[in-house]
Amino acid sequence: MRLRNIAGSREVIADSAYTVKDPQTKKGLWKKEVFGNSKPIHIEIGMGKGRFLMDLAELNPDINYVGIEKYSSVLLRAIQKQEQRQLPNVIFIRMDAEEITEVFAPGEVDKIYLNFSDPWPKDRHAKRRLPSRQFLERYDKILKADGVVEFKTDNKDLFDFALEEVEPAGWNLDAFTLDLHNDPVMNEGNVMTEYEERFSSQGNPIYKYIVSRKGK
Ligand code: SAM
User: Reduced to 3 states, what is the DSSP secondary structure of residue 211?
Assistant: First the structure.
């Protein structure tokens, strides 16, 4: 998702009370300094326009949510929604997730969501895919010991790739489904993302896994 050339989006982000500037300075301090509480931190990487994260935040006031998005023009849409919703437990960062270990301390994050991540179809770009082993290695550094990564997509090739990465990366496949919306157990409490609504309304099945390092 990339909304190109929205004039002034960088300035809006820089001025917004809903974004954290210089997020590296908050490493190890997210609960204390950013949220001012000791509630768990859940992050979504590649949140797009952020509706999923904000819906979760409304449902779960006892969790702190951090939305991470690479592009200003997309993040701008999330900020505009948050200006209307004013959820106290949501904050955004504009950054490339490749830098994630510079921003969160070991064990600082309780859960990571990846939703409809960019597929990067060329083999030589595999390491840019958010469920790749290179990214799992980064998540390993910031997730607490019993933390989980939840990944949803409608892209079968990307999902197959993600499944194949789990074991070599040293993670456990805790659960998966090839048809989330028709899986009563995994679909319970499912909050749809913007992409999920669009693709499932076109008849595409939604794939999901949950992975962890439990017992490792
Ligand atoms: N998660 C949303 C959803 O399900 O509706 C948006 C999905 S969209 C296809 C993927 C988003 O991930 C885009 O907005 C893109 O800019 C962002 N993204 C991709 N790679 C990223 C990275 N390395 N760091 C941060 N954001 C990234």
Answer: strand
Distance of alpha carbon 35 from alpha carbon 2, whole angstroms: 29
Please tell me if the CB atom of residue 43 comes closer than 6 angstroms to any atom of ligand 1. no
CA of 140 to the centre of ligand 1 (A): 20
Q: Around 108, how many Cα atoms within 13 Å sit in the side-chain half-sphere?
A: 22
Is any atom of ligand 1 closer than 6 Å to the C-beta of 67?
no
Q: What is the pTM of this model?
A: 0.96
Mean pLDDT of 109-132: 98
- The closest-lying atom of ligand 1 relative to the alpha carbon of residue 196 is 4
Cβ–ligand 1 distance for 148 under 6 Å, the answer no
CA-based radius of gyration for the chain: 16
Q: Does the pLDDT at position 216 exceed 80?
A: no
Q: Atom 27 (ligand 1): residue with closest C-alpha? A: 46
9-213 domain in CATH 3.90.550.10? Answer: no
In this prediction, residue 202 has a pLDDT band, given cuts at 50, 70 and 90, of very high
Nearest-atom number in ligand 1 for the CA of 195 is 5
Predicted confidence (pLDDT) per residue in 52-94, tens digit: 999 999 999 999 999 999 999 999 999 999 999 999 999 999 9
- Give me the pLDDT at residue 5, please: 59
Tokens of 45: 């990487």
Domain ranges of the chain: 9-213
Of 117, 96, 101, 105, nearest to 33 (Cα)?
105
